[in-house]
Every structure is written in structure tokens, then in C-alpha cells.
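Q: Convert this sequence to C-alpha cells.
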Amino acid sequence: IASTAVDPRSKLPHPASRIEIAMDECRFSVDPFKKVDVQVKEVIEKLRPLLALSFESIRLAFKIPGSAYGSVSQLLRQHQKKEQWMSNGDWVCIIEIPCAMKAEMISQVARRAPDLEVKDL
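A:
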């Protein structure tokens, strides 16, 4: 939940500690014998009165030099919607991720390719 839910007012992710405190307040306990998907749906229903939750996704376009393609492509492939090689050798990739993952994703890609360009779509 912490990696996909954002506060709709600030568009920032809820910290995991805030979600854990809200789970304690609504007296939800994780059952190790129940499926995770079922429990996530249950806890979201209980958290909605306590926290403003929004599950939005965003599209980002990354322009990466061809020399950094190998290290970055594995990171972006699972979220990739479209890719294209430019005539100058740069690689352009469009991904779709939950809003809460935006800052983390950009920082991970920037560590591997410092001279990247990112645009919100």
C-alpha cells in the first residue's frame, strides 16, 4: 500500500509508518494464512475513513544515452509501455508506474545514467 497509495491532496506517498499506525487504529491484523490480495482489499476498505488514499499512475518519458542502455533497460522493462531508438543513439522509453514510485524510480535511473532527461506525460 505504501508503494502505490498517495495522498490526493498533496500527491505525495503516504509513509509506511503512517499506514501502519492507521492499521493499528482500525485494529487490522495481518493473517499469514490468508492471500495477500484479499487482505490488501480488506485493509484498504478499513483505511479509507482514516486516510485519504488515491491509487493513481503516471507516465514518464526517459531519454537515456545509448551507452547507459544496458544498465537502465532492466530496471525500466517491467513498467515499459513504448521504446524507441533515436538517430543520435539515445534510447527513449515511456513507462507507467504508481505515483508513489516516481521519485524512487527517477533516482534509481539517475544513478545508472546521470545525463538522462525525464518528462511527465
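The chain is about 35% helix and 20% strand.
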